[in-house]
Write a structure and sequence with these properties.
This protein is of the alpha+beta class and about 170 residues long. It has helices at about 5-15, 125-135, 160-165; strands at about 30-35, 40-45, 50-55, 60, 70-75, 80-90, 100-105, 105-115, 115-120, 135-140, 150-155.
Length: about 170
């Protein structure tokens, strides 16, 4: 059964931030750096604040005609000190589907809602640890129209970007 306890927080995060255009929604945005294939940002929007790192896939495969922005974020803030991983597909996922993520040969399934996939409760930290030591992350999902997509992300720079937001004073 899907756990939707994080959905409201993730929706708020999506509304207030976007991987490469967070400045349009946030009152204050601080670019913390680019670390190979990953970017780190701190933001404050009204009473909400936090940090995230993000990356876009190196390759996107699938038999689709149109697709929105595709990216992965790891977000932290006062209530999420170790991080929440969200994958953004650029299309609505198939109802009640899961996404398969493979990091250097180790697979994990994520739950989905609309265009977002994230780890089941209690699995974020283990997922982040696999990303820290990994080199490549392959994400396979299915759209509402049953179109299979395969997105491949580089994990080069992930650890340095993640440690930047863990240690930055605006991220706590």
């Amino acid at each position: 059964m899907k756990q939707k306890t994080r959905l409201p927080w993730i929706v708020i995060l999506l509304i207030t931030t976007s991987l490469f255009s967070s400045a349009m929604a946030a009152d204050e945005t601080e670019w913390l750096g680019t670390f190979q294939d990953w970017h780190a940002v701190a933001y404050k929007d009204g009473t909400r604040s936090g940090c995230y790192i993000g990356s876009k896939p190196k390759s996107e495969k699938g038999n689709y005609t149109r697709r929105g922005d595709v990216y992965v974020l790891v977000s932290i803030g006062p209530k999420t000190e170790t991080g929440i991983v969200t994958l953004h597909a650029g299309y609505p996922f198939k109802e009640d589907s899961e996404v398969n993520v493979n990091i250097d040969g180790k697979s994990q399934t994520l739950l989905t809602s609309n265009e977002i996939a994230w780890a089941y409760d209690g699995e974020d930290q283990a997922f982040i640890e696999r990303m820290r030591i990994g080199k490549k992350m392959v994400v396979v999902g299915f759209s509402r129209r049953d179109t299979k997509t395969t997105d491949t992300y580089s994990l080069f720079g992930f650890t340095q970007a993640y440690e930047t937001i863990l240690n930055h004073p605006r991220c706590k």
